[in-house]
TrEMBL record:
<dbReference type="InterPro" id="IPR050109">
    <property type="entry name" value="HTH-type_TetR-like_transc_reg"/>
</dbReference>
<keyword id="KW-0238">DNA-binding</keyword>
<dbReference type="GO" id="GO:0000976">
    <property type="term" value="F:transcription cis-regulatory region binding"/>
</dbReference>
<feature type="domain" description="HTH tetR-type">
    <location>
        <begin position="7"/>
        <end position="67"/>
    </location>
</feature>
<dbReference type="GO" id="GO:0003700">
    <property type="term" value="F:DNA-binding transcription factor activity"/>
</dbReference>
<dbReference type="InterPro" id="IPR001647">
    <property type="entry name" value="HTH_TetR"/>
</dbReference>
<protein>
    <submittedName>
        <fullName>TetR/AcrR family transcriptional regulator</fullName>
    </submittedName>
</protein>
<feature type="DNA-binding region" description="H-T-H motif">
    <location>
        <begin position="30"/>
        <end position="49"/>
    </location>
</feature>
<keyword id="KW-0805">Transcription regulation</keyword>
<dbReference type="InterPro" id="IPR009057">
    <property type="entry name" value="Homeodomain-like_sf"/>
</dbReference>
<keyword id="KW-0804">Transcription</keyword>
<dbReference type="Pfam" id="PF00440">
    <property type="entry name" value="TetR_N"/>
</dbReference>
């Protein structure tokens, strides 16, 4: 089986697992139910995932992949607000397949569910760890320091915590039907929070 097919199958399993987790909770969901929903054997499910909670990993990683791409493409000469606004505009204009919209919703549900399901929260925090690692690379480049520099790592951890909390609040508000305007402009709010969390070290353009 090709790696592309393997990843596609993992995502199919993850979608069904997320649907069941949201409908009936993680404890009530069994590996057999996930396997039946996808049309696979239980043995095949465990070939791709170490336990039932980890079945949510692809959906949760989907939720952070776009943000990771935003970080990777952040030009030195741009502020975070400018770059984030540009990427949001591109996303809004791009045609999105129905599966992408469904995956967005599934990811939102898993992020919210992670607040009350400890096993799922571990999976969510693992996804956030990928954001922290990417932040370290970006921050090191902007500060002209090594990625393993203690200050760089502290800034990366602080910035990631801000992104995680903001993501949890935004998704909870979205699923509850709350007016998202009450949270504020995500560009300004997130950039301001990142600056505050890093003591102003990150967020502004880098002047050469």
């Amino acid at each position: 089986m090709s790696e592309q097919r393997r990843q596609r199958l993992r995502m199919e399993i993850s979608r069904e697992a997320a649907r069941l987790f949201w409908l009936q909770g993680i404890e009530a969901t069994t590996g057999e139910q996930i396997a039946d929903a996808v049309g696979l054997s239980v043995r095949t499910i465990w070939r791709y995932f170490r336990n039932k909670e980890s079945c949510a990993e692809p959906v949760l990683m989907y939720s952070v992949e776009w943000f990771l791409s935003v970080l990777r493409s952040w030009p030195l000469e741009c502020s975070f607000e400018e770059h984030y606004a540009t990427e949001l505009t591109k996303l809004a204009k791009r045609y999105r397949e129905p599966d992408e919209e469904a995956d967005d919703l599934a990811a939102s549900k898993m992020i919210v569910l992670a607040n009350t399901e400890p096993a799922l929260r571990t999976t969510w925090l693992m996804a956030c760890d990928q954001v922290e690692r990417e932040f370290a690379v970006i921050i090191a480049r902007r500060l002209q320091r090594a990625t393993d520099d203690v200050e760089v790592r502290m800034h990366a951890a602080a910035a990631t915590a801000v992104v995680r909390v903001f993501s949890e609040a935004l998704n909870a508000a979205y699923l509850s039907g709350t007016d998202l305007a009450t949270i504020g402009d995500p560009r300004e709010h997130l950039a301001r929070a990142v600056r505050q969390a890093t003591g102003g070290a990150i967020g502004d353009p880098v002047v050469s």
